[in-house]
Amino acid sequence: MAPQKLTVMILILVLSFVPSPRAGQSTEKPRIGFCVSMIYSPLLMYKRYQPLMDYLTEHTPYQFDLILCRSNREALHAFGRGKAQIALLDDISFMEASEKFKALPILKPLNAEGAPVIRSTIVVSSRSPIRTLGDLRGKRVAFGPHHSTTRNLLPHYLLWKNGIDLSEIESVKNIGNQSEVVKAVLSGTCDAGALAEGVAEKYAHLGLRILASSHPLPSLPILVRKDASRELVRTVSSALLNLDRNNPRHEETMKQWDPGLRYGFTNARTSDYQQVIRMYRSIPAGCGQRCHPKAGS
Questions:
Q1: 178: left (phi over 0), alpha (psi -120 to 50) or beta
Q2: DSSP per position, 205-268
Q3: Domains 29-115+219-276 and 120-215 agree in fold
Q4: pLDDT band for position 156 (50/70/90)?
Q5: Can you list the positions of beta strands (E) in the chain?
Q6: CA torsion 242→247→250→255, rounded to 10°?
Q7: Which whole-number Å values give the CA distances from 197 to 68, 83, 154, 168, 216, in the listed order?
Q8: Cβ atoms 241, 267 nearer than 8 A
């Protein structure tokens, strides 16, 4: 399907679900685009991210519009051109946004343990004879998009640190959708796959087994453009930092959101992500596309 047609279909799908303004609700609020790259199907993305837009619209003086992009490249482009003032990128693209557009991280999501970190996993079928990372030599492995932190960078780093070169893997597939990675592993199309920890745990009951987990890294931040108003940053930060997962009412609100966003937030700084940059530059092939400079370059 042509990219233009797919974009139109996604836009139509999203708009068809946008609720009408409630009675008495002001329609005069300034509109703010919130860009998110698609890691699920368009419908599932809408179900998991539109409630966040509704919450921000209700608790700030702005109307938030969800902008779904087919890839992080497309999301970065929309963010850079000003179609979106806020972005949540699923990968290392937030650092490109910082370098190219002087974007600023303002918030980090907390995980189920209340820590602002993420982990990557490599999973296999529960019936698989694979028991160690070394057993992946000569096997078929599914990774995420090239610029994904949790589904490409961290798994590559995990293999590299354990003495396994990608050349020793029989075949490497880069799959954008995490649910498709799950299907590939469970169907036997791939012998192993890289997933974010929360996704791996969610689908464990279907027959997935975590083979290995990465060390923790800072969770992926919510970004704002450098020209974002102080009022926008203040009100968005306040609305999300005020959420307490131990508060039953707040917990009820957040349980509608994506699993990676439903446990609260803390402040973020650019310096929090220096370790991620060093990891990209330490792996011989980086993300797999050789598009990032090595240390000292």
A1: alpha
A2: GGTEEEEEEPPPEEPPPEEE-TT--HHHHHHHHHHHHT--TTSHHHHHHHTTS-GGGTT-EEE-
A3: yes
A4: confident
A5: 31-37, 63-69, 86-88, 104-109, 117-118, 120-125, 140-143, 171-174, 192-196, 208-213, 217-218, 222-224, 265-267
A6: 130
A7: 23, 31, 11, 25, 10
A8: yes
pLDDT higher for 273 or 107? Answer: 107
Class of domain 29-115+219-276 (CATH, top level): alpha beta
Tokens matching residue 100 = 């190219």
CA distance 30 to 49: 20
Q: Which two tokens stand for residue 221?
A: 């931040």
Q: Please give the Cα distance from 100 to 89 (Å, whole number).
A: 15
Residue written as tokens 């745990």?
Answer: 201
Average pLDDT, the chain: 85
pLDDT at 293: 41
Domain 120-215, CATH among 2.60.120.1440, 3.40.1190.20, 2.40.50.100, 3.40.190.10: 3.40.190.10
The residue ranges of every structural domain in the chain are 29-115+219-276, 120-215
Q: Cα–Cα distances in Å, from 159 out to 167, 214, 217?
A: 11, 10, 16
Give yes or no for a contact between 267 and 107, defined as CB atoms under 8 angstroms apart. yes
Average pLDDT over residues 192-213: 93
- DSSP symbol at 91: B
- Looking from the CA of 162 toward its CB, the CA atoms found within 13 Å total 20
